[in-house]
Amino acid sequence: MSKHLxxxxxxxxxxxxxxxxxxxxxxxxxxxxxxxxxxxxxxQIAAAGHVTSxxxxxxxxxxxxxxxxxVEERLAPLFHAIWDAADVVRSAPLELVRGxxxxxxxxxxxxxxxPSLWLREIVNEGGLLRERALRHIPLGQxxxxxxxxxxxxxxxxxxxxxxxxxxxxxxxxxVMLPQATAKIWRHINPTVTFDRATxxxxxxxxxxxxxxxxxxxxxxxxxxxxxxxxx
Amino acid sequence: MSKHLxxxxxxxxxxxxxxxxxxxxxxxxxxxxxxxxxxxxxxQIAAAGHVTSxxxxxxxxxxxxxxxxxVEERLAPLFHAIWDAADVVRSAPLELVRGxxxxxxxxxxxxxxxPSLWLREIVNEGGLLRERALRHIPLGQxxxxxxxxxxxxxxxxxxxxxxxxxxxxxxxxxVMLPQATAKIWRHINPTVTFDRATxxxxxxxxxxxxxxxxxxxxxxxxxxxxxxxxx
Lengths: 231, 231
What we know:
Strand content of chain A: under 5%
Largest sheet of chain A: none
Oligomer: homodimer
Helix content of chain A: 55-70%
């Protein structure tokens, strides 16, 4: 499931054309992430992909076909790369989350356009890939993830205040939003040198242990209990 | 600092007009959050605020003046409500974070339009309030927050893998993104009944302790150390 055959939408490409068509899709996702789909012309995509506009029109009769191919051949395989390896039935909850995190950072490292495209065109109201992309979310796996966390909670492995159905959303927010908005933060504070390895370490620590240092964790938990015990 | 005088931009309103002008700004932020600024007309704002389009034009000569008033009189006071009470110099790091969280949930509870407007018009590339809103971020407090966390880290209170300069970004992502995107999640899984109190409990738990249950935390940390110790 993690490898999709190319050319499932629009005209099929043969031989060397397969590379050119793939380059074109790579150019398209890069531009869409940087400028937004609505602000990108076919001529710009063609130029960035080193082909003629005529070739783009030959492969994709319509803009819709191009967007469909971007989702089928560029986005969906990444959803699969993140979810397919998750054993939501047998993994211990903490290992499940650790594995998801590692794959999400691996995937965004290899496809640095993903967080911006996700924010602009899927998360946003009016995002032009939202409906198409949501169809490719592996709902069975997402549901199984929630069940795994719920099971871990009832078995005492997961913090009882963690909400199983909100956790994947939280992970997505922690991993994707800072990568999608790195430009703003650099604008506010140019001394912040954003790098993916630091973010990964930070997000992993946050999810696994929260902000408290191991040594201070016990004291923190005690205070927390006192705070919750107030009427 | 947390109360701004009304009518700092555009024509001043007097007497009963102050209420009408305030209602208009409330209507504007609601529509901007729901439909986006680019998709909202003056006529729609006037109708939602129960005034005539002529009154809108009287108070705000230009669309720019209206946007400036929205930022000055609706957004900036909320930034202050979140940041002004933070004692970034003297608070213990965990209490500082707990206080920020409580105020962020309090502010988004009273102003449910805020997360969508934040996502659409500030976070987004091309967001029409971005530049204006960024000018109102209390940079001194944000910097002090980072220093507080860094100090907590060097004093052993904060997890050494937490990155002080990324933490506020993480908190913002955890609190705001799920509220701004609640619609998508309901679309994917209609059984998720999203409520703010559950999100607050979940995010607070995540930040304070991570996903591991207190009982399993020690074992989890041990595994974590082993994983990190691998060559």
